[in-house]
Write a structure and sequence with these properties.
The protein has 342 residues and is an alpha/beta fold. The chain contains 11 helices and 14 strands.
Length: 342
């Protein structure tokens, strides 16, 4: 599957703009020209989520009622992929979100994996140096694209945590009994076991990839489970009205050259480790999705020095289609299809 064209309508700074893509394409432009918005649009078409915001409303151009993203994909024949969000016509009671493929509306949970992608942004260094939430998000974003059971478990987990926290609060104020918590404990325990198992399986794949890629620095990951005894912490959960047990409290440790990456890695080492994690993600998606992932490199040279950016480009499977953004041209991009934003 190859991306051929993309049309942005009322999306971020673009009123209506068309982009064309080759096997290796780069968008050049200064800050504020909308380069990252193009990468964001492609990611939205791929996974239905933005790496910049959780609110689709922020993507609509100022004073407009909707945005529309339209892409042409080439396989054996051209396919038309479109995402619409907003008011379909004036005075409509609420905003709609519609994803269509060749004019047929798609269910997102069933669609995911059709147009897989890997996005690399300057903030990905936080996977190594940042909070457990950053690392959990990395894990779940990979699995979300290719594992339907994981998606269902994740959605069920979110609902369970909301319902369970309400009951914890009701018990705290003597409006509910401990017996009402038991069925939710059983559901949470089951989901925790399932989600942890799938995350650990991906880390096994990741570690095997890292072993084969250890030509610059030694990187390894270890899954770190949170609390495992639900009954032991139940009193604290009630007191705080918070879910202290579950996969939403887990982490995974990234070890760089036998030391904690979060505590001891330099920014240069963290960048290289992040590159390796993203390359593993691409390899995993290729082996589990029906088509090769699209590689999205946002602001390629801002956080990566020349050595690391060349390392990233060299590591990319030559079969992957790549769309990158940069503020300036670079000899490393020789032979790429160039488009300039002003």
């Amino acid at each position: 599957m190859q991306l051929k064209t993309l049309v942005l309508e009322n999306f971020r700074p673009f009123v209506k703009e068309k982009f064309e893509f080759n096997h290796r394409s780069v968008l050049l432009g200064g800050n504020g020209t909308g380069k990252s918005s193009v990468i964001e649009a492609l990611r939205l078409l791929s996974v239905g989520k933005s790496f910049r915001t959780s609110r689709f409303d922020e993507c609509i151009s100022l004073s407009e009622a909707f945005f529309r993203l339209h892409a042409t994909l080439v396989n054996d024949s051209d396919k038309s992929l479109e995402l619409f969000y907003g008011m379909p016509f004036p005075d409509y009671p609420e905003k709609e979100r519609r994803l269509t493929l060749d004019g047929k509306e798609q269910n997102y949970l069933e669609y995911l994996g059709f147009f897989p992608s890997v996005v690399f942004t300057p903030n990905d260094i936080e996977i190594v140096l940042g909070s457990p939430q950053e690392r959990r998000h990395y894990l779940d974003a990979v699995l979300w694209q290719v594992d339907a059971e994981f998606r269902q478990s994740s959605l069920k987990l979110s609902k369970t945590l909301r319902e369970r926290s309400t009951i914890l609060f009701m018990i705290k104020i003597n409006r509910a009994s401990h017996e009402e918590l038991k069925p939710w404990n059983e559901i949470l325990t089951e989901l925790t076991v399932d989600i942890r198992a799938k995350r650990k399986k991906y880390l096994d794949f990741l570690n095997n990839f890292l072993v084969s890629a250890e030509d610059r620095l030694k990187v390894k990951t270890t899954y770190v489970e949170g609390e495992n005894d639900l009954l032991k912490i139940e009193k604290d959960e009630i007191r705080l009205s918070q879910n202290l047990y579950g996969p939403h409290r887990d982490d995974f440790e990234i070890v760089v050259n036998s030391r904690s990456g979060r505590r001891f890695a330099s920014r240069g080492q963290a960048r290289t480790a992040a590159v390796l994690l993203k390359m593993a993600e691409a390899d995993y998606l290729e082996s589990h999705a029906p088509t090769k992932p699209l590689i999205l490199l946002d602001d390629l040279f801002s956080e990566l020095d020349e050595t690391n950016s060349q390392y990233l480009l060299d590591k990319l499977n030559k079969d992957y289609q790549v769309v990158a953004t940069a503020t300036h041209d670079n000899p490393q991009l020789k032979g790429w299809y160039h488009q300039e934003l002003k």
